[in-house]
Specification:
Keywords: Membrane, Transmembrane, Transmembrane helix, Transport
Helix content: over 70%
CATH class of the largest domain: Mainly Alpha
Number of helices: 10
Main location: membrane
Subcellular location: Membrane
Largest sheet: 3 strands, mixed
Organism: Pseudonocardia charpentierae
Oligomer: single chain
Pfam family, one: Cation_efflux
Strand content: 5-15%
Number of strands: 3
Length: 342
Amino acid sequence: MDEKDEQDAKGGGESTLTVLVAMGANAGIGVLKLVAAIFTGSAAMYAEAAHSVADTATEVLLLTALRRSDRKPDRQHPFGYGKERFFWALIAAVSIFVSGAVFAAYEGIRTMFGESEEQTLAWIAYAVLGVSFVLEGTSWLQAVRQLRNEARNDETTPLRWLRETDDPTVKTVFFEDSAALIGLLLAFGGVGLHQLTGSAFWDGLASVLIAVLLTVVAYILGGTNKGLLIGRQADRKTVYALRDALAERQEVEQVVDLLTMTLGTDQILLCARLDFDDALDAASLERACAAIDADLRERFPDIAEIFVEPVPRTDKAIRARVLDRYGTAGAERLRTGLQRDG
């Protein structure tokens, strides 16, 4: 097993652990919340039970994503199955909305505008919410631990890693658990205000707010996975490092065009159009392409496939496509390797 395989196995194992911890916590919490909802008649507790059901279903989908995305490339899928992780994570985001947010909104509106229901055995709700907070907190801490480790490995901040990551499993669990902790506080407030005022309106309002919270999380996660499924470029740091690695080779006169796409978690497709030294003959050009392939694979373990195309820098059609894609400033950075921060 080479270094990349070892890193992938370690990362995949930690992601699986994070998902399993979250799934176990949510399944147990969901049962407790449902029992509390039945005894207390609280709309917020019913909403939280639906929230836990949605989260548990999400974790099942994420485990499916982890298992299916690790399959090796084959004849029908020569670029591998990496994007399956993005697909199942997108379905998980839809699951959060459909099975969690919709039910919570319905239950909250029904309680707010229906006949007022008497609250009973509120202490059960408080006890379940307290236990749930501890269990959800344990799952959240595991997600934060992996988030920090991943950010440290990529030499970036946790917040930036969340914005740019191509691993939807960790991001999904982190946002899920964060929403779960906030949802528990909302439910606690709803139950407490219902007990203090005798009005079920506050209980229903808490349920509606939980629905809004789940909708926001589903929207964020759905947008992330949509972008990855469509075909997002590699992170800027990697793109510019690839550009510099190509430009510094003696055989290359200029990097004319550079395209990358995320094929899966830690899997990059690279297409490079290069203006080679005109003194190279056909055999030398072939050897140069092979050497570039080997060098880049060694320096950038995340690269899954490399395509190198020799082109003249003066080709107007290619130049026009580069300008259309990156703009004048981006094309100039590609050509010269100027300061690229931002």
